[in-house]
Amino acid sequence: MPARVFEETVLPHLDAAFNYARWLTRNDAEAEDVVQDACVRAMRFLSSLRDDDARAWLFTIVRNTWYSRVSRRATVTEATLLDTTRAERPDDGLDPEARLLQQHTVARVRAAVEELPVDFREVIVLREIEGLSYKEIAAVVRVPIGTVMSRLARARERLLAILKPSAAMETLP
Amino acid sequence: MSCEDVARDLDAYVDRELDADTATAVRDHVSGCAACRRQVSELEALGRLVRSTPYYSAPDRLRARVSGRTTRLTHARQLLMWAAAAVLVVSVGGGIALMRPAAPRGNAIVDDVVDGHVRSLMAAHLFDVRSTDQHTVKPWFLGKLDFSPPVADLASIGFPLVGGRLDYLRGRPVAALVYQRRQHTINVFVWPEDDSASAAIDSGSARGFHVPHWIRNGMSFWAVSDVNDAELSEFARALQGS
Ligand SMILES: [Zn+2]
Known about the structure:
The complex is a heterodimer.
Chain A: H1 2-10, H2 14-25, H3 28-44, H4 54-70, H5 96-103, H6 106-115, H7 118-129, H8 134-141, H9 145-163, H10 166-171
Chain B: H1 3-14, H2 20-31, H3 34-51, H4 60-67, H5 71-93, H6 107-122, E1 129-130, H7 134-140, E2 161-169, E3 172-181, E4 184-192, E5 199-206, E6 209-216, E7 219-224, H8 229-241
Antiparallel strand pairs in B: 1-2, 2-3, 3-4, 4-7, 5-6, 6-7
Helix pairs in contact in B: 1-2, 1-3
Zinc ion binds next to helix 1 and helix 3 of chain B.
């Protein structure tokens, strides 16, 4: 029964679908629309769902739904420069994480991720927030695993460049 | 391995995506190289930083819209299930021995555990007792089960206990402990194991959910959540050691 399969395999991942869509669209209303459309598609394509990959499968549908909505729009995102005001000099005794946390609010982290080009942004979200394996990300994004790896590495490089205060670099031995 | 070799594999190392031999080689190098160690720390810190951003949960409005046509069905099944659970609990109270199937292993249990997790989220019946205090949650099970589940709070490492409920799994009433990780729910199902030998953590998965399992002091533990694998493993190790 499709309704039951939908309810047991797709709905439990609704939060994940919305989270992914929200990062893609960077907009609440648009994310809602995308996920609603994606659920309609998911219902229709339930038979293509294998047993153990409902979440990644739903991500793929969310992604396709979003891309088809924006296909006539320019999707190239220019990475704009963030406010580069530095917080005060970090405490040398702190470990790297504490040092980062000390100086950056959640809002700033979110802004940094949102500023990433969408190809980089989505691999960061799928990996760091949703915890997908490289293989799963490759399936969702439809690129080879090597591409997933290089995008992740470059995305992290960019994020570190933005979030790691130059002051912290200077204090390193 | 040189620093250049390590640099190439660093992301995959931090993401635990390297094969065992390469991971060992990287670990050996990193343990003796401060520069590479610092880069590992930075990547790990960056991951935690990204995960510290609030999770975008689906708004209720959206959930209602996409699940509207199936909710009635859910409630009917849910009622039946709880009726069955109630009957069994009554039998336990009356001292009637339960017929339990011989401990089945592997995927069948993982599937049932995932089902139990999904049911709890969908039916909005996550809690019978809602408390972050282990000394409230543990006694709540007294008299409702024929065993006493160990209850630990892991708030200090970011997995606060939020409550518990009676659930019904593998043909018997079980304890379900509920923990939270950001916006994610972690269910831990606990029941006594006939074979009381302890078992280390092994991990199954079904339908996109990871399910670490272990046995300790005669109790079988099954954790399930959609938090990422690394965090759930951390949770399982902490709970097992608590
Ligand atoms: Zn090195």
